Amino acid sequence: MLHDFYLGKIPHAGRCCSGVYAQMCTRGPIIAVVPPGKRVPHRTRADTFARLFEAVHEGVFVGTLTPDPLSEGTTEAINPFLKAMLGYAPGTTDERVAPFAPERFVDPAARQAFLGRLLTEGAVTDYLIRLRRLDGDPIWVEVTAHAGPSKKRGVSQVEALMRNVSERRRLDDQSRDLYQQLLQAEKMAALGQTISGVAHELNNPLATILSWAERLAERNLDETSRRGVEVILGESERAARIVRNLLTFARKRQSTRSMIDLNQVVRETLALRAYEQRLTNIDVVTALASGLPPVFADPHQIQQVLLNLVINAEQAMLTANGRGSLVLRTWHDVTHKAVVLQVSDDGPGVPTEVRSKIFDPFFTTKEVGKGTGLGLTVAYAIVQEHGGSIRVESPPSGGASFTVQFPVSSVEHAARPRASSGSTERSLDGASVLLVEDERALATAVVEALTEAGLHVEHAGDGEEALARVRQNRYDVVICDLKMPRVDGMTLYRAIATASPSLARRVIFVTGAVAGPEAERFLEESGCRWLSKPFRLADLLRNVREALA
Ligand SMILES: Nc1ncnc2c1ncn2[C@@H]1O[C@H](COP(=O)(O)OP(=O)(O)OP(=O)(O)O)[C@@H](O)[C@H]1O
Ligand SMILES: [Mg+2]
Fold it and tell me: pTM of this prediction?
C-alpha cells in the first residue's frame, strides 16, 4: 500500500489533520490513512504506540521469563486489558502482575511445556494455555509471543500478546458435546432397536419354559427333580426380568402394573445391594412408614427407579469419601394423595449448575465408561408414566436427596385387583377356550396346561384360522397373541366385536414386549385384559376365571 497508517486519536471527528477520511476501528484505536510523504502530525511514534498499548483489546505483556519452574519472571509493562483479563484491579502496579507465574497456570506441566517451547524456539503463535484468574476462575488464553536474549544470562526478554478465548472454547466444547450426544443418541436408538428385537425373540421361549416349569412344579416330584424345577422357575423368571429391564432401557416399555406395597419394593431392592454395600462401607438406614396405601405400579420398574437412585448415591459417596450413609424413607402424604419415597445420601451433593441437567439423557459427570447418563433419565420416564414426580434437593452443606411421589391409587384401579378370592375359586370345568398363538412350542405348553386345569381348549395358529373358528363355534374365552402374521390380534378383535360383542369382552391378549404405541393405545381403549409375555400360568388362569365371572 502507498499509504501510511496513523494510530491514535484523530483531532477532528471523521477527518485527520491531513484531510484524508478517517475510519474508526470499534475494537481499538482510531485509524486513519495518511498519504505517502506526509507525516503524522502532533504525535511522536512512541506516543502512538503508548496509546495503542493502553487501548488495545488484547493483553500485552513485556517482561522476562526463565525456564525455572519456580520463577515467575519479571514484568516491565502490562496493559490495562491484560490486568482486567486476569482479574487485577486497574490500579495494580505492572510489576505486581505476573501472568506467567506458576500459580497462574491450571496445570503445572502445561506451564513447563509452554516455557520450553517459547524459550527454546524463540516464539509461539496462538499457543493455548489455561490460566487461573485472581478470583480462581480458569480461562483459556491464546498466546502469541516472541522471546529473545536479555542482559542477564539464562533470562529471556519476552513480548507477548494474549487473547482470552474462553467463550470460543465454550462454544466449541458445546458443539462437540452436542455432536457426541447426537452420536450417542443414534447409537442408543440402534441399540434400542436391537434390544427390542432380541427381547421379543427371547420372550416366546421364556414363556414356554415358564409354562412347562410351572406345570411340572405342581406334580409329585422326587426331591432332586423338585429342586431342579424350582431352579428353572426361578432362573427363567430372572431372565424374564432382565428382558423387561432391557426393554425399559430401550424405551419400549410394556408394563405389568398391580397394586404394590412400596415398602416391599424398597426392601427387595436393598436386599439386592446389601452385599455390595457391606463390602464398600455404605451404611443403610430405613424409615419406612407402616400402613402405606398401595400404589398401582409395575414393581420391576419401580425397582429400577430405586436401584438407579441408590447406585448413584453409592457412587457419589464412595467417589468423594470412600464410605457413606444412605437413608431411605417412605411416607404417606395425605394432602397430596401421594406415597413418597426419599433416597438421601451424605455424598458431595449435586452442584447447582448441573442440577437442571441431571435428568437429561446422556448427562453424566462420570468418566467415559463409568456412566452413560441414562440412570436418572430412565427413572424420570418411569415415574412420569406412573403419574408421579421426581425432584432433587442438594443443600450447600452437602448430600443429595431425591424425592419420588407416586399417586395413591384411585378406587377404579383398586377395583380391578389381579385376583379376587371369589373368582379364584370358580371352577373352569368345561369352559371352552380358543387359543390363538403362532408360536408352536408355546401354544402346546399353554393348551396342555389349560386342558389340565379343566378347560376345553382349541388352538388356532393364526388370526385367519381363528376368525374361521369363531364364526363356526361358540367359545367362552379367546386367548390371543397380539402380534401375528397376516391377521393380527387387533384385526381379529374388531371382527369378533362386530360378530359377538359379548365374546369380545372375554378376549384376553398376550403381548410380546414390543407391542408398540399403537397396540398399547388399542389395549387401553378396548379395555381388554392382557398379559405380557412371558407370563405365569397362574396369572393366565386367573384372567380366564375373571373373564368367565
Ligand atoms: N446422589 C448423587 N449425588 C451427586 N450427584 C449425583 C447423584 N445422583 C446423580 N448425580 C449426578 O447426576 C448425573 C446423572 O446421573 P445418571 O444416573 O442419569 O447418570 P450416570 O449415573 O452418570 O450414568 P448411568 O446411570 O447411566 O450409569 C451423574 O453423573 C451425577 O453427576
Ligand atoms: Mg446413574
Answer: 0.42
